[in-house]
Amino acid sequence: MREGSAPLIRREDYTAPAYTIRQAELTFDLDAAKTIVASKLSVQRDTAQDKQPLRLHGEDLNLLRVLVDGQSVAFRHEDGLLVLEAPEADSFTLEIRNTIAPEKNTQLSGLYASGSGLFTQCEAEGFRRITYFLDRPDVMATFTVTLRADKAKYPVLLSNGNLVGQGELDGGRHFAVWNDPFPKPSYLFALVAADLVRREQRVTSRSGQEHLLQIYVKRGDLEKTEHAMNSLIASIIWDEHRFGLPLDLERFMIVAVDDFNMGAMENKGLNIFNTKFVLASPATATDDDFDGIESVVGHEYFHNWTGNRITCRDWFQLSLKEGLTVFRDQEFSMDMSGSASARAVRRIADVSSLRERQFTEDAGAMAHPVRPDAYQAIDNFYTPTIYEKGAEVVRMMHTLVGRAGFAAGMKLYFQRHDGQAVTCDDFAQAIADANPDSTLAQQLPLFKRWYSQAGTPRLQARGQWDADNATYTLTLSQHTPATPGQSAKQPQLLPVRMGLVGRDGQPVALQLQGEAGAAGTERVLVLTEAEQRFVFTGVTQDVVPSLLRGFSAPVLLDDGLGDAELLVLLAHDADAFNRWEASQRLAVHRLRAAVQGSGAVQLDEAYLGALRALLLDPVLDPSFKARALQLPVETYLAELITPVDPQRIHAACESWLDQVAACLQADWAATFDAMQVREGYRPDATQSGQRALANLALAMLVRHAVATGDAVWPGRAFQRVKDATNMTDRLGALEALVNAHAPLAQPALERFLALAGTEALVVDKWFQVQARAAEKDGRVFARVRQLLQHPQFTLSNPNRARSVLSSLVMFNPAAFHRSDAAGYVLWADMVIALDAANPQLASRIARALDRWTALAEPYRSAAREAIARVAASTRLSGDVREIVTRALD
Ligand code: 0A1
Ligand code: ZN
């Protein structure tokens, strides 16, 4: 939609569909310039409702004809809808013929061209860009799809379900007929017509049913699909084992496409993936890429039950499928990672991402509840709040009812709702009903505030040890700050997993006053009011509270602990997550003091000693060490140190890094050598932990060497860029040189690009490393400007566009927020330019200034001006219009 803002769609206005479509027979004559779509729909009127016109969604379509039961009928166009007066009969056949132009579809929503192939993306409202339809998730039809196309150009023709016919046609054309027996909403429809090759495997499920698994990619990419196939098989086994959910399809296909707005899409039986989440070889993909593939393959596969078998009634319920499916993919990745320590590191990664992306969202102009109340462009609501915070809400339910209770709840959810389009309430009710004695069931309305209230709750904790009575009183209180449109918040239900750690590091038994029975050393306190006190008895020594273990609730904790207490937790906490958390908070204390003081951090001996002890600890996992010895990212620090001065935050981080690099130089050197992996490459938790710590050590060593004029470590890093046998090592060495602004950075970049050849995903990394580099004297920003002119740069491929633009505006605050406002000028230019072709992509970039009101001057005023300039543009899409309007409200 162009010009003017799109209407606000409200959750409270939901009404059941007046008509439903039972069956859809679609025929496509595929051609990039002009595709003809013929659709034959069995439509049924809901006779319980008053008779009303049939209103079909349609966008950018060229309509050729409309027939009802074979007769042409009158129709009109109204607000993007095709409106037909209600036919006499309650059930009728509607036939529509229209054309579309896939090669002109630069939005990548609907049917579009990528390279020489044709692909679809229908979630959320892309199907209406293919043909007229009741394009809403509570209308579910069975689809039979005939694809006709030139055989040489499009040898592979795929759609959802099972292949029920294929053959030759005149003029070098061929056809395929696909039938999907599962009724599904139109957003799960998919088709692919392309020249692709495939890896395939047959598997037999526990029940004895045979399934065909296929992964389709471009020629030359086949050997990079092994990890995706292994991940798919692991996902199938895991879902059956953990949740009793078997693969219900004869055929499950994954197709990789170069041009894709998001990560991947769970179309029934025909998942379409961004190549980034399919293709991996040790030479082209990092350990993180391998992990990303495992988790996204899992995520899309798990949607087959949580999303496809049970779908959303309306888009306000998006978290019903996304929050739950993220929770499931997180659990899958944790179960796959092996040891308890590797699980903890996964949790640390997930929580870091939540804080960096969702906490910042919840504090900004786009803050919205997990179940939003209103939207203009639904594509703007595929957010960290719907996904990651939604997953935390599911995780809290899991905490409250336990693993077995949650499994029972899932079982009940499927018994009740399989084949339906339902709401978040239905899900919570099923989990509660399966666990009637749980706190969740008893406090369900209170718990459900997690769905309705936006904003990150603040949890304050204060403890008092009473030596005379041997009691420890913990007072917990909460409040949630106002968010746009929600000024007053009510208390929420917060599960607080906790322990008490003696000053000697020993765990303390937790006996609540008035409670009988044996006491353990860890428990979950449930805060349900604004303030509550918990009195522990038999506490004979002063203790340090270790609260929110494993991050048991998505809140910001203020426990008032000082350095001495955090050092106890860092060294001794039985909970690995809270050990890591202590390391982060010790760093934040120092960074905050620097930002608010002289600018440079002063690292004391006690702190450096603790870091050294951590680095050299013989028991801790390298992956844990790598996490605990890294600073929180600057975007998250900006949430903790306000008003936000990105330059001062960056300067403080740089000074922390300089000192840690210098003071621990010998330890970093020993660590780098000790962490070399001698066996063949495996992307598992053990090896990737070693590589992560080696890369961190190398970055520190190169930094210190550049500062002191030493050439040895930069030389070793350069050598590694040339000789590394895997991408994790190669990229790590390149980043070390680039971030330290080493003289060898430029030759290393040249070598890296030469080695990348035509591997698009590796070229993306080359752009990304430079656009995310640690800013120094404006050099990174200047480089970004050059990169935008590079012959291999293009705005039309989302991955490439993001590798430079998102890297700058989302991940490199010090390069982006400049006192001369040049970053904001570039941002505004790029948002406007991108919006003309791809509004979804543009509106993601537009969100970089969501938090402008928290900025210090001069950034704040300059950011506002840039947003106002975008808002003043007359040709904005509804997507970007919504973002900039909310930002200025
Ligand atoms: N349901 C997908 C995410 C998705 C949403 C919209 C898209 O349109 C461009 C694409 C993908 C998931 O959660 O994986
Ligand atoms: Zn999803």
From TrEMBL:
Pfam families: DUF3458, DUF3458_C, Peptidase_M1, Peptidase_M1_N. Residues 455-558 form the Peptidase M1 alanyl aminopeptidase Ig-like fold domain. Its EC number is 3.4.11.2. One of its GO terms (molecular function) is metallopeptidase activity. This is Aminopeptidase N. PANTHER family: PUROMYCIN-SENSITIVE AMINOPEPTIDASE. Aminopeptidase N is involved in the degradation of intracellular peptides generated by protein breakdown during normal growth as well as in response to nutrient starvation. Residues 228-435 form the Peptidase M1 membrane alanine aminopeptidase domain. Residues 25-188 form the Aminopeptidase N-like N-terminal domain. Belongs to the peptidase M1 family. Keywords: Aminopeptidase, Hydrolase, Metal-binding, Metalloprotease, Protease, Zinc. Residues 563-888 form the Peptidase M1 alanyl aminopeptidase C-terminal domain. It catalyses: Release of an N-terminal amino acid, Xaa-|-Yaa- from a peptide, amide or arylamide. Xaa is preferably Ala, but may be most amino acids including Pro (slow action). When a terminal hydrophobic residue is followed by a prolyl residue, the two may be released as an intact Xaa-Pro dipeptide. Its cofactor is Zn(2+). GO terms for biological process: proteolysis.
